[in-house]
Design brief:
- The complex is a heterodimer of chains A (about 90) and B (about 350).
- Chain A is mainly alpha-helical and about 90 residues long.
- Chain A is about 55% helix and about 0% strand.
- Chain A is built from four helices and no strands.
- In chain A, helix 1 (about 5-20) crosses helix 4 (about 75-85).
- Chain A is globular and about 30 Å long.
- Chain A starts with a helix and ends with a helix.
- Chain B has helices at about 45-50, 55-65, 85-95, 105-110, 115-120, 140-150, 170-180, 235-245, 270-280, 285-290, 295-310, and strands at about 1-10, 30, 75-80, 130, 160-165, 200-205, 205-210, 220-230, 255-260, 285, 325-335, 335-345.
- In chain B, helix 2 runs parallel beside helix 5 and helix 8 packs across helix 9.
- With about 350 residues, chain B is an alpha/beta fold.
- Chain B is globular.
- The N and C termini of chain B lie close together (about 10 Å).
- Chain B has one domain: Thiolase/Chalcone synthase (Peroxisomal Thiolase, Chain A, domain 1, 3-Layer(aba) Sandwich), CATH 3.40.47.
- In chain B, the strands form two sheets. A ten-stranded mixed beta sheet of chain B has the order 4-3-5-7-1-8-12-11-9-10, sandwiched between helices.
- In chain B, helix 9 links the parallel strand 9 and strand 10 (about 285).
- Classes of the chains: A mainly alpha (about 90), B alpha/beta (about 350).
- The interface of A and B includes residues 20, 21, 43, 52 and 62 of A.
Chain lengths: ~90, ~350
Amino acid sequence: MTTNREELIVEFKEHLIKYLNLLDLAPADIQNDVPLFGEELGLDSIDSVELIVLLDREYGIKIKNPTEGRQILVDVNTIVDYIIANRTK
Amino acid sequence: MYIKDLYAISPQKTHDLSFENGDWKVLNEYIYKAIEPSYQDLIPNAQLRRMGKAVRMGMGVSLPLLGRNPKPDGIIFGTANGGLEDCIKFLNQIVEYNEGTLTPTNFVQSTPNALAGQIALLSENMSYNVTHVNGSLAFESALLDASLFFDEHAKEEKRLLLGAVEEISDYNYNIDRLGERFKKELVSNEELLDSETGGSYCGEGSTQFYLSNNPENSLAKFTAFKQSSHLFHDEIAEFVMRFLEEQNLTASDIDCLLLGRNGDVTTDSWYQKVEQLFGEKPTVYFKKSVGEYRTVSAFASYLAVRLLNGQAHYLIENGATVKPRTILIYNHFDAVRHSLILIQK
């Protein structure tokens, strides 16, 4: 299990590319503080469900509250911080 | 039903019309994979990254067709399996994650009507939208639906996008291969019909037609079609001749035959029976070009329209100089599902 934050960021980005099929991107192409659901990556509502599945499968985190989800799934930094605080695997 | 426009992605270079102009690809492969064009200018990246091959190929054919023709009054598709690869992924996920949280993309993309739905969304077309999944007669069912649609709207000009799509899934290919539907030894498609073994080679692709009930500026027309799933071997000749009689035609009225011979010695005798009815008629064996798949009769129809318009004549055996005006397609799948399609200039 990766515990170092920088390593976790890279690992999460690799999962993000795999789950969302962003095959023309490398982890370094995704900025940590750029909103995922905006102009940059152009993710949409189906991607948000894919992200919830990612967090469940890879880190044992279940997001059930939509309001909570909107605060977590903002950018790479917010998601990785949440993983560090709440992961069960 | 008049064909105003058509386009195809197939294991030959139909996407840039090289195939039609004589560039025939020799295939020495177990799987005849479709040659896909670049989709970057056609499909937004956000949608393209999610698309399975069937949806991608289907969109790659439909968007150029819709781009150069008025908005159709309906979208009708035939597919036996739809997005099979995504379907298998989704089913495997159910097992792997013990029926827990599943990703939506594989499910959304794997439904057979995902393609027709996405075409409607991207082209903002809220009209009649149906996908037929009647196995190896799925395209014929779509054809019947289109015919009924035009019958229902005979008093006004109507237009339809009619198509078919099939993709190869590795998982299903292996099952079909174990079931001896596909050959275990490798033979070039040039020698496919002389292979003297069971099975054929698996193909894939998407073929689409832009149809209208207005004959003006049409390339050809679907004159008639017929299907059967309950024929005995000694009934095929009568099935064909009765079909011609229903159209007030005889064997001599057919200028060119398109036959689905696929090199499978266990079932090719059906085609030989039909060939015998027509003597030394100019013939095209279209599966040498694209292999066997369940909606391949759509590709045969595509090829017929090209032949009727002076293209791809190099494929005609026993008469490359003929200028056909009436073409009969006979195809069967596993010698169980048979179809006849009559296409005329």
